[in-house]
Amino acid sequence: MPHRPRAGSLRGPCDGMLARVALAVIALGAAPRALAQGDPKKPAAPPAPAPAAAPAPALARVAPTFDALHVAAAELPEGWSLSKEMRTASPQPATLLEDDLYSQILPKARHQDFQTIVGKSATGSILYFDWGDKIPDAVEEFVPPLLFGGKEKSTKQHPERIERIGGIMLIVSFPFESEEGKWVIERLRRRFGLRVVHDLGAASKAVATLHQQSEKETKEAAQTGLAYADEHAKEIAASSFASFLEGDLATTVQDYARAEKAYGRALALDATSDPLIDDGLYWATKDGHGTALWGLKRWDDAARELTEAAKIAAGQRRPEDQGHCLYNVACCLARLGKADEAIATLKQSLALAPKGKDEAVKDEDFASIRARPDFQALVK
After folding, report:
1. Residue/partner pairs of 355-361 with CB below 8 Å, 24 or more apart
2. In 3-state terms, what secondary structure has residue 56?
3. Helix (H, G, I), strand (E, B), or coil: what is residue 127?
4. Residue pair 115/82 in contact by the 8 Å Cβ criterion
5. Which of 151, 170, 145, 148 is CA-nearest to residue 66?
6. I need a surface site. Which of 161, 180, 199, 285 has the fewest CB within 10 A?
7. What is the 3-state composition of the chain as percent helix, strand, coil, each rounded to the nearest 5?
8. What rounded mean pLDDT belongs to the chain?
9. Low-confidence ranges of the chain (pLDDT < 50)
10. Under a CB-based contact definition with an 8 Å cutoff, are residues 282 and 276 in contact?
């Protein structure tokens, strides 16, 4: 059967990752980074949300270029306006943009700018820095400690958020949990499809409940969670994160038909109206969808989905998770009778995640190729 480790630790600023359940840090102040593999551990359930500003109207998604990321006055809610005066919630972002000292020690951005939004209850600024294809490592090492003094997490004293889009860094600087700051984040999600931590709104209770049952990692808890999902189907159907958790619970009880539907819904929502909260969670959803297809014995479909999941893991620089996905692709290929392709894919997998050898030896998916000398050589 597919190699699906139960959990993964949160590594670095967001240290860790379940191969099966990749949950980003949900607390509104946290700034999730790419998730990675590790020892079993899950984050705490999300807190109840603070009252949120009315969501931005649905917009056709556009590419998040430096120019497009700027807010047009016509987009603002009634009574809000743009100002030409920088008004950051704490002084560090303004000094980063304006102080010549930093320009001497950090790679110069190709373009940089700011916008200030004056709302009904608060005023704040968005700072834009564009380095082209990639944010320089020196910037990543310097800017978060400058803004937060330590771990990258918004607080009342340092309420900024850093959002990264390719080579562009945005610093969103508004009073802590202000409606105006939440509006900016929601705009990034709806207009550009960015996967960022946000106020879960009406889905918060469903996410917290399903997460709590998923965290127990038992079939009994999964059944409890699925019963809750049945009772709150409308809320869950509108939330990519809640749909992901429903897929996870269904996988625990091996209800692969339900898991495939739930993961598929999460991916559809991510692509249209409700981006997932983190790129690592997107990978986990693709991986879970592929595993559900494997459980339904749809080997061709599963191999395609898991191959895509492997590419996503590679792009997120998570070799162990990439290896795990390729292991499962090899399982599907062996089931399809594509012995040579299965061996070649398994070889790639084990080069990235050698721990898979122990499972491959006894894995029934490889029954058709187990006697081959090249398979035996791989699992020695």
Report:
1. 356/3, 356/323, 356/324, 356/327, 359/3, 359/327, 360/327
2. coil
3. strand
4. yes
5. 170
6. 199
7. 50, 10, 40
8. 86
9. 5-57
10. yes
